[in-house]
Amino acid sequence: MTTHDTASAAGPLAPPSWISARYARGVPRVRLFCLPHAGGGVGVFSPWRAHLPNGVELAPVELPGRGSRIDEPMPPTMDALVEALLDGLRGELDLPYAFFGHSFGALLGYELTLRIEREAAAGGAVRTPSALLVSGSRAPHVPLGRGSVASGDDAGLIDWLSGTGGLPPELLDFPDFLRDLLRAVRSDMAFAEAYLAAEPEPVGCPLAAFAGAEDTVSTVAQVEPWDRYTTAAHALRVLPGGHYFPQSHARETVGAVLAELTAVAAV
Length: 267
Known about the structure:
Oligomer: single chain
């Protein structure tokens, strides 16, 4: 068995890499782009490695303002972020692929899929996704259902993150790291909280939605309406855990993701 782990460093004049901690067993046949929750880095998908079969490449996306890109500013708008991300991923669309996005990442995956499918429909030579996998996110037309957290002060943001399981208490002892984390979380959450579609605009690829049974941030009822966002096959899978179930229940999540990929790609 051959294992590929290609976290290569870019040269000083190279453009920033949007993929970090790439991982596959054997020769990749399907690329799984993983888009993290607000403030999340590529490390949140590390527990998935142990559960991957041969042929599936894990391609975690590193957004600006965290991890190896900590010194880069986030684009000023959601549209600018999606366009920059699409430009950064174009060279990665050479294999059959799917987007998996959790929470804020689900909205990024949806917007990326829309743009790619529009480009292909207009005659562009771009491979479209085999599937869109959205996780722990309200459907785009579903109202937020609470006040904004991103617009509050740091103390309020810390309390909210702690209460939802998104901030391990030991991080409070590292103020410099916490400051950087809160900056990334606030930027991502501001985009996510303001995101609201007037009505569903479906993608053309199969769409599977994943919800945490105990998730109080994006409840099962808020995730269910993703069924209106595809003209192809749709599935809803409810998994154990709260909002961060892809980390706390990695084996179950990867199993559900692979089941959906098997239905649409050569996994």
